[in-house]
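Figure 3 (text version): structure tokens given as input.
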């Protein structure tokens, strides 16, 4: 996988250029100045807020410290919640996007082999190859994104323990990790309508397909539209010894044919996705949710079930009502057979300081068992 690269331009003092690395597809900054160990944090923060990127030429560890100092300055600005939880959500997301934009202005150079030509720089070549594929020319990347690449590499190496599998799932960079186990546990305990076959729509890491295979489903087609997710799912299926039962295919939602069980865990919050991992959380215009429900009747065998795994966080944020969800189900020619629930255990659900705490504390994840009417 070789990314389609933009080019970053700057003066040093002569005109220079390098490939611009951005897994989320963000455009390169238009203004760039060079910075080093002598650059004060206040100056770096001011330039970043003004939209000027800083290309680091000093010690790598000092760049990390500067990024932390810039983050402290961003976080000094008090967050002012809106009058309603919906307004608070939108303001909070705007603040998080602005924070990411400012901190993304600290850049580091890379050689064509992903080596970093800075003092005390770590060896990130393998992590970058996993995230970006091949390169072939000098490049520049934001230090914040690079830290995410390094963290994803460590997650990929050690994996995430999934109790329902009694095994580890190894997420790739840009693929949502199954760290929230309640939705996996719901799939592990819901009564199966049959064990002949199943579809897993939007498989991601392949974790739900693996759970179904371990439960005895003999043939599973797992689909995804994202090449990163497809590579991740295939690797996990092979690692778990389930390649004989799980077939991973590229598809926008459904594969051809019908199955007695169709499972989908779409992004839970309607809204635009601004980064690669956002696509696992935000579903623009509820496209995936609507597409899954609208297509389910045409892909279910008689007597089969569709399992929709969905958090009700959007309802508590005022972004979607239960009536709207049930309306989509009804218009798709479906009925609700049962609804299994689990309460989330992630830290934010207990963090009273979180501006969205009231919504997170009330959140429930549900597996909706759907059948043809």
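Below: residues designed for each position.
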């Amino acid at each position: 996988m070789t990314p389609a690269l933009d080019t970053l331009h700057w003066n040093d003092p002569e005109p220079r250029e390098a490939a611009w690395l951005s897994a989320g597809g963000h455009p390169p900054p238009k203004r760039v100045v060079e910075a080093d160990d002598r650059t004060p944090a206040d100056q770096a923060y001011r330039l970043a807020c003004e939209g000027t990127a800083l290309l680091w030429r000093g010690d790598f560890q000092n760049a990390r410290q500067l990024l932390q100092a810039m983050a402290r300055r961003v976080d000094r600005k008090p967050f002012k919640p809106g009058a309603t939880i919906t307004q608070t959500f939108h303001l909070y997301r705007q603040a998080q996007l602005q924070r990411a934009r400012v901190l993304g202005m600290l850049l580091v150079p890379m050689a064509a082999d992903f080596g970093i030509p800075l003092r005390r720089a770590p060896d990130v070549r393998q992590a970058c190859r996993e995230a970006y594929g091949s390169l072939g020319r000098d490049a520049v990347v934001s230090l914040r994104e690079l830290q995410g690449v390094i963290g994803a590499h460590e997650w990929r190496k050690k994996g995430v323990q999934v109790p329902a599998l009694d095994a580890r799932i190894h997420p790739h960079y840009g693929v949502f990790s199954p760290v929230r186990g309640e939705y996996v546990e719901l799939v592990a305990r819901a009564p199966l309508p049959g064990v002949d076959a199943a579809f897993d729509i939007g498989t991601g890491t392949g974790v739900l397909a693996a759970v179904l295979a371990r439960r005895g489903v003999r043939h599973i087609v797992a689909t995804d539209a994202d090449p990163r997710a497809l590579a991740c799912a295939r690797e996990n299926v092979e690692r778990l010894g389930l390649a004989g039962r799980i077939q991973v295919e590229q598809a926008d939602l459904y594969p051809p044919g019908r199955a007695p069980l169709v499972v989908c865990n779409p992004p839970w919050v309607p809204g635009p996705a601004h980064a690669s991992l956002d696509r696992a959380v935000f579903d623009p215009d509820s496209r995936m949710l609507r597409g899954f429900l609208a297509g389910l009747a045409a892909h279910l065998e008689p007597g089969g079930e569709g399992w929709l795994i969905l958090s009700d966080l959007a309802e508590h944020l005022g972004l979607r009502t239960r009536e709207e969800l049930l309306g989509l189900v009804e218009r798709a020619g479906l009925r609700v057979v049962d609804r299994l629930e689990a309460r989330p255990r992630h830290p934010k659900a207990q963090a009273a300081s979180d501006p969205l705490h009231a919504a997170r504390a009330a959140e429930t994840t549900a597996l909706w068992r759907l059948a043809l009417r």
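The chain has a mean pLDDT of 93.
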